[in-house]
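Review form for a predicted model. The reviewer records the input and the model, then writes brief findings.
Reviewer: anonymous (R2)
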Amino acid sequence: MQWSTIYNVFVRDFRKQKKRITLTIVALCWGTISIMLLLGFGEGLSYQMSVNGKGMGEGISVLWPGQTSLPFKGMGKGRPIRFVPEDVDYLKSKIPELKEVGGEYHRWGTSLKYGDKIVSEHVNGISPNYKEMRNHIPAIGGRMINELDMQYKRRVVFLGNKLAERLFSDKPSNDELWFQESPEAKRIQQEAIGKQLLINGIPFTVVGVQIHKMQMNSYSGMDADKASIPATTFEAIFGDPYLDNIIYMPKEVSQMKDVEKRVYEVLGQKYKFDPKDERALGIWDVAENQRETDNVMMGIKIFLGIIGGLTLLIAAVGVANIMYVSIKERTREIGIKMAVGARKSYILTQFLLEAILITFTGGFLGMFISIAITEGFKSIDIQSEVLAFMGRPTISWDIGLVVVAILGIMGIMAGLFPAMKAASVSPVESLRYE
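Model under review:
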């Protein structure tokens, strides 16, 4: 059987049933658009949630001191645990699986003054490796806190972008400023560098402003609203002997649970508490949080795919109806072919391929329109934080392959049973058919 023969038969049937086949192709096109846009929305949302989840850091855990709840070696429960700066090096020396460790100080309600502007914000003392662990990425022209700042206890500050806006912009606060990467946003990021501001009346030099980033998680407010200074400077100025928390990053994310267990053992040995005492320390596994989000998004994508698949299923029923009608109208033709020697497999294959051809004609038309719609979405400027948080519909190769697979299954299922019926027609009876 030649493809040209199938094509010619298809064109002949199309002319005879133009309206019916056109409506079926439109239904298939509509069903394909539905499933592709739903899957594209799920893909875009999943990608954006992944980006938002990494805003606070990727593959890290946040460690807080707690209070013992179990007696240990003659000591009672209820003893508070306090982290000191030496714990950072202690953890790194005892747990070789750790890639990065850093301590952090917090101080809320700190006065920051530039010119005649005064704001009360959150200041934290951090180490240089927060650039990698917590995604403290400076805008062009600036830098993060470095080792020399730590060593010489320099009075330098790294500003969150929205905090910099409140200090260095004469215009009212505007979220759109950062989404559009407007000239005003770039001016603030550039001009703030090198300027001096007062933190609790002490002069600090701005060395960098954070780039805009989406952040879904936080444990002490958003990074965009914080001022970060070297941890050693913070300790010297505020006289705080205890770290508020420690951030650590294993070399491999898969080692997170093992490292967590080792943290309890190592700090339990130092601070004399039972390693099984979960209240002695608080650990937030941010990577686990990300994995849970990924699982939820996968569930949403499957759910949206099922809804779109059901829409496409209705269109496939239309294809099956077209094929049954076609068989009825071509019964004598089938009988003549079988009478002159055509085998049942020939008849079955012919009708099966016709059904698949109708299905893929509508399907590919729908795929083309879906891609055009999603590309159109990408050219629209998003000026809303909520919409930016949701992401844009994205059609990936995976979605295309899934839809092609579904179309193939639908085409085979829609054509198989009519084709089997056509192949089972008796040549004698079919020649009598009027």
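Findings: The longest strand covers residues 98-114.
Further findings: The mean pLDDT is 84.
Recommendation: see findings above.
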